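Write out this protein's structure.
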Amino acid sequence: MDEKQTITAEQAADLAAINAAIAEQPAAPVPGMPGSPGEPPRADLAAEFAGIIKLAVATLSPAFPSLATIYTDQVTTAAASAAAAVCNKHGWMQAGVGGKWAEEIAAAAILLPLGWQTYQGITSDLAKARASKPEPAAIEDNQTAPGADNIIQFGMPVDPVPESQPA
């Protein structure tokens, strides 16, 4: 069934007025879309990724010296930019790498390695102090302690009761 719709002149005028009004007004920004007024600026993921890579390399380089030669500034920037492009394409991590926990994650990334290095340093210092301290000389079984011949006894000496005498 084909039904033909007819538009009256009045309806056509109303439609034209609506189309003209839409064309005159700029499109209203959609909340939550990037670039909308009042929205915080988008995180620079490439810079955040580069910072994370540099932090990891600086932290792990003492144990793995080859990392410093592998992760040059050029390589770090390229890797961070590539990862950021993928995240931006898919809408991942738009609030930044750490999201609402970014400050806490950054603090942990700095303070935990610092705490570990402090622990290792103090442990090493204590071990060196113990190693440099001379140990007291051991007393052999047939030796007496220094000053043992100058024993002072208070009170009357107690003699054991001989076994042959009844108590």
